[in-house]
Every structure is written in structure tokens, then in C-alpha cells.
Amino acid sequence: MTQASKALVNWKYRHAVVTWIGIGLNLIVAIPFFIAPLWCLEILNIPAVDPIWPRVGAGLLLIITTFYVPMTLDIDRFRIFCWLSILPSRTFGSTYFITMVVVFGYAPGFLSIALIDAAIAIAWLYCMINIVRIEQAIATGQVAA
To answer: Which of 28, 38, 69, 75 gets the highest tally of CB atoms within 10 A of its CB?
Structure first.
């Protein structure tokens, strides 16, 4: 195995690790919001609403999270999921919550959700840029496969 091939395998592994961390963080957020939404809102100092709405959000987050699993198992086959998880999923999620807090004055507790999404999106993007860079170098013959 050449140096480029080893680097490619390492970056794909890093991407899978970041993805599983993101899945774990989603579950840490979604499950409590699904089970005890008012308690979660209180912890984040977000004004209480009808419990169905945080539960709906948690349910949707669980559904979205299932789409992250295939790319951890076969990044080459499910490459489109890798890019869709960055943009629009995580990028729009973080942008939405930051905008709601900064521009529209919603509770700062929403920033924790935005920061999680932003951190995972940046890590995924960094991994994907390196994966594509190495793959292109191999494909164009700049490095040996």
C-alpha cells in the first residue's frame, strides 16, 4: 500500500469517526428532548412551549441521523450523503439557529445546538476536502495508488 493509499484510508476513517461522534451528539440531544422536552428546555433556559414541538424536532433529528449511518459503512458508495450532511444538513442547521438567536433575539440556549452542528460540519468538510484531494492526486497520476 502506497503512502497516498494509506493517507486516503486514514482520512476515510477520520470521517467515519467524526460521523459517529455527530450521531452520538444527535442522540444525546434528541432522546432527552423526546422523553422530557420541558426539562430540556429548562436546562437550556429556553422558554417552555407545548411539549409536542420539541418532541417533533427530536423525532425529525432522529430521522435525519439515520441518514448519516450509511456513509460510515461505505463512504465511496454513499458519497452523496457525505456532501449532503455538510450542506445543507449541518450548515443550514447551524446557520438557522445562529440567525434566530443573533438576529431575532431567541434564547441563547439555541446556540449550543448551532455550535454542535457547526463543529461537525467543519470537521466533515475538512475530512472530505482531504479525501477528494488525495483521490484526485491518485486519479491524475500525481501520486501512486
So the answer is: 75
